[in-house]
Specification:
The chain is α+β, with helices and mostly antiparallel strands. The chain contains eight helices and five strands; from the N terminus they run αααααββαβααββ. The longest helix is centred in the N-terminal third of the chain and has 36 residues.
Length: 273
């Protein structure tokens, strides 16, 4: 169950009333925790005020000293603490170390990193059956943070979840600009095609970033080749390719039709200015 912006406290109380009378509360709680974890990791929380209202209402109907479901509310509270307090504190410490490394030791990192950390005990998400291939630059970023975290929290280990998260990329594309010069008498004209390097910033999903990275060393790739190189789950890959073609306008495909297939061939889109 996800909240939308026009939900009111009255709406939440109606939901809590239904929850109170569910026969299978365990299934609801497991679904809610999984949905909440996905929302938090995808940055889809609508704000602490509404989330706290939900916690307060669920606590009033479910939280009893001898209630078997009181752990449900405690888990929600713990997840919010990890997302909005603990993760923020850890990132502040990590960024301080990055600053010291840069200023004092001259160590430069080719990335800016923001990490959310949720305990697997409370955050139950459905992971793909197999891990996709993570590009070396992304794995280096993860390993750098993991090395720091292992010293910060010695008894905990991190698991990378590439199905979540976003990346802000600087995309460099070669564009063509046509310029026409006309003679003074107007009888002659010449047209020149100038190639222009254009840089733009775009925010993509982690999977989409993995796909785009392949085009740093390839002019064209079929969907099957991308699937083999990235090992992204097929359904997720098709969604990522569709976004890169139709939404971000970074790739074009052949054949030029709406449906995305693994047999299609994909190219980086060249701008015509």
């Amino acid at each position: 169950m996800a909240f939308i912006k026009n939900h009111t406290t009255a709406d939440l109380r109606n939901v809590s009333f239904l929850v109170q009378h569910l026969q299978d509360k365990i299934s609801f709680e497991e679904f809610y925790l999984s949905s909440l974890a996905t929302r938090l990791l995808n940055e889809e929380s609508i704000g602490m005020e509404m989330e706290n209202s939900a916690i307060g209402i669920y606590k009033s109907v479910l939280y009893r000293p001898s209630h078997s479901h009181s752990l449900f509310v405690s888990r929600i509270q713990r997840m919010f603490k990890e997302k909005f307090l603990l993760s923020k504190s850890i990132m502040e410490s990590y960024n301080n170390r990055v600053l010291i490394d840069r200023v004092i030791l001259g160590i430069m990192r080719p990335f800016d990193l923001n990490v959310d950390i949720l305990s697997a005990v409370y955050c139950r998400v459905v992971s793909p059956h197999s891990m996709c291939k993570v590009p070396s630059f992304a794995m280096n970023a993860f390993n750098d943070f993991n090395e720091f975290y292992s010293k910060y929290k010695t008894k905990k280990t991190l698991k990378l979840l590439p199905q979540f998260g976003t990346a802000e990329l600087e995309v460099t594309r070669n564009s063509q600009r046509e310029t026409t010069e006309q003679s003074c008498d107007g009888e002659h004209s010449t047209t020149e095609i100038e190639r222009v390097e254009r840089k733009t910033k775009v925010v993509v999903s982690t999977y989409e970033m993995f796909v785009l990275d392949l085009f740093n060393s390839n002019d064209s790739l079929t969907g099957q080749m991308i699937l083999k190189e990235t090992m992204i789950p097929e359904d997720s890959l098709l969604v990522s390719l569709d976004n890169l073609v139709d939404h971000h306008k970074l790739l074009i495909k052949n054949p030029d039709c709406k449906e995305i297939k693994l047999s299609d061939t994909f190219y980086v889109k060249e701008d015509i200015l």
